[in-house]
Design a protein that fits this description.
The structure is a single chain. The chain has a single domain, classed as 3-Layer(aba) Sandwich (Rossmann fold). Helix content is 45%, strand content 15%. It has eight helices and seven strands; from the N terminus they run E-H-E-H-E-H-E-H-E-H-E-H-H-E-H. The chain has a seven-stranded parallel β-sheet with strand order 3-2-1-4-5-6-7, with helices on both faces. Strand 5, helix 5 and strand 6 form a beta-alpha-beta unit.
Length: 262
């Protein structure tokens, strides 16, 4: 058990699985009391039941303002406050190239990934403003940084989360509320439906498979008082992917260019 978050109360949306679940567990390890918010009632309740006394579950649709407010109220009533809000809930769009995309998932993706972050930040900040401030962490993706083919709705939503986070950091700074954004890279979760080995080999300089705990560790830092002077940042957790391709790929490209010159 650590002490990084001792005495703090946190909410993790999308907390029943993947990055959210790993973060709930790390928060608890660091001394926080946590409300798991999710639409997956069975998984969310099971997680909370497995961590009695320091966790609770609240069925929450992050696109519904009344449910988000009820989540805040429930947390404050249950644990006596709210110091950390991790807006992690998100959904992916279809792996469809632009010319064939019917955008049937556009509204859902935008509502969960953008509106959910806006509502979560707003309602948490309204409480934090009156109680000395707090830390809000929003989950984007490297898909919101690096351009690429397909996944148009998802890429657009995550790029919006990045810009919104910076804007909200400025808006809320006067109330001692910090807002930061993480951008996970190739992390195995339930939303990952492709071959991570190949993607890491060709696009990630650090040839290490990252896990949900790597992301959770970064969120703990941004939630803790160690980051008291940190707001408005974007923190990629991507093994260097957004910095550029691996050196091995540069060698291949230079080798091909050399062969063409010959």
């Amino acid at each position: 058990m650590g002490e990084e978050l001792a005495g703090k109360v946190a909410i993790v949306t999308g907390g029943a699985s993947g990055i959210g679940r790993a973060t709930v567990e790390r928060f608890v390890d660091e001394g926080a009391r946590v409300v798991v918010a999710d639409v997956d009632v069975d998984a969310g309740q099971a997680l909370a039941d497995g961590l009695p006394d320091v966790t609770a579950f609240k069925n929450t649709d992050v696109t519904n303002d009344q449910q988000v407010q009820a989540l805040i109220d429930f947390t404050v009533e249950r644990f006596g406050g709210l110091h950390v809000m991790f807006n992690n809930a998100g959904v992916a769009s279809a792996m469809t190239r632009l010319l064939h995309d019917d955008f049937s998932d556009f509204d859902r993706v935008m509502k969960v990934n953008i509106l959910g972050v806006m509502l979560g930040t707003q309602r948490a900040a309204r409480h934090m403003k009156e109680h000395g401030g707090g830390s809000i962490v929003n989950c984007a993706s490297i898909a919101g940084i690096n351009a690429g083919a397909g996944l148009a709705s998802y890429r657009a939503s995550k790029a919006a989360v990045i810009h919104l986070s910076r804007s909200m950091a400025i808006d809320l700074a006067q109330y001692q509320i910090r807002v930061n954004c993480i951008a996970p890279g190739q992390i195995q979760t339930g939303m990952t439906s492709y071959d991570l080995d190949a993607v890491i080999r060709f696009t990630q300089p650090l040839q290490r498979h990252g896990g949900t705990d790597d992301v959770a560790n970064a969120v703990v830092y941004l939630a803790s008082d160690r980051s008291a002077q940190v707001t408005g940042i974007l923190l990629p957790i991507d093994g260097g992917t957004t910095a550029g391709p691996p050196a091995s790929q540069l060698k291949l490209m230079l080798g091909a260019a050399s062969e063409r010159q010959e």
